[in-house]
Write a structure and sequence with these properties.
It is elongated, with a radius of gyration of 22 Å. It starts with 10 loop residues before the first helix and ends in a 15-residue tail after the last helix. The longest helix is centred in the last third of the chain and has 22 residues, at about 150-175. The protein has about 230 residues and is an all-alpha fold. The protein has helices at about 10-30, 35-45, 45-55, 55-75, 95-105, 110-120, 130-140, 150-175, 175-195, 205-215. It contains ten helices and no strands.
Length: about 230
């Protein structure tokens, strides 16, 4: 029986509070900012409580990254349980890019921190969001909807880096949330336009077309043909 004046313990709520505090620290200074003591202080619990939910700092960091990844996944793709099940032909690519751009604009530091962590990771496919994003591009590249010779990993880094760094520009160019939302839309539209049309007229760059159709060589990009 709970004594009067004391709230009953809610382990799941406490765990979520701890993760929220850890995500907040991560957003400021990356994984290095996460420590049991710092998280306990920010979550207003003692260190023992943190250890009850996360047996080590390493597990807390992993849970924090998983939490961020899940939020990004849900923002862009929907339910995490749907991973790998969506038919790529039925995906609304424009809407997916827009949702991701809006999430990045609303969670700028968190998104950038996640990106830097993934880029430095020797095992990025362990992350659910990266796995689905890069995996979607891989599946797309094997359909008749795609251009030839897509490098899904390189394209994933290009797209995500652009979307997650765009808020840095937005913060210096906008005064309020409405303006930032417009800038998020601009980025998602440009990613979509580049995906659909690119930026170079192929007929004007026959040398570039030939280079991209040829097998990848070590010195592939030493010299790019000039417009004719």
């Amino acid at each position: 029986m709970v004594k009067a004046g004391k709230r009953p313990r809610d382990p799941e709520a406490t765990r979520l509070d701890i993760l929220k505090a850890s995500c907040s620290l991560f957003a400021r200074n990356g994984a290095n900012a996460i420590s049991i003591s710092a998280v306990a202080q920010k979550a207003a619990v003692n260190r023992g409580t943190v250890y009850q939910h996360f047996a080590s700092r390493e597990l807390l960091v992993k849970a924090t990254l998983d939490s961020i990844s899940s939020r990004m996944y849900e923002a862009a793709f929907g339910d995490v349980a749907s991973e790998g099940e969506r038919k790529i032909e039925e995906v609304d690519i424009g809407l997916t890019m827009h949702r991701l751009a809006v999430f990045a604009m609303d969670n700028a530091e968190l998104s950038r921190g996640w990106l830097l962590q993934i880029l430095a990771s020797p095992e990025p496919t362990a992350d659910p969001f990266w796995r689905e994003f890069e995996g979607s591009l891989q599946r797309f590249s094997r359909t008749k909807l795609a251009q030839d010779n897509i490098d899904s990993q390189a394209l994933s880094v290009i797209v995500l880096s652009s979307i997650f760094l765009w808020p840095v520009w937005a913060q210096s160019q906008s005064k309020n949330k409405a303006e930032r939302r417009k800038l998020a839309t601009r980025m998602s539209r440009e990613v979509l336009r580049l995906s659909l049309f690119g930026s170079m007229v192929p007929d004007e760059f026959p040398g570039v077309v030939a280079r991209l159709r040829a097998p990848v060589m070590q010195d592939d990009m030493v010299e790019i043909a000039s417009p004719r």
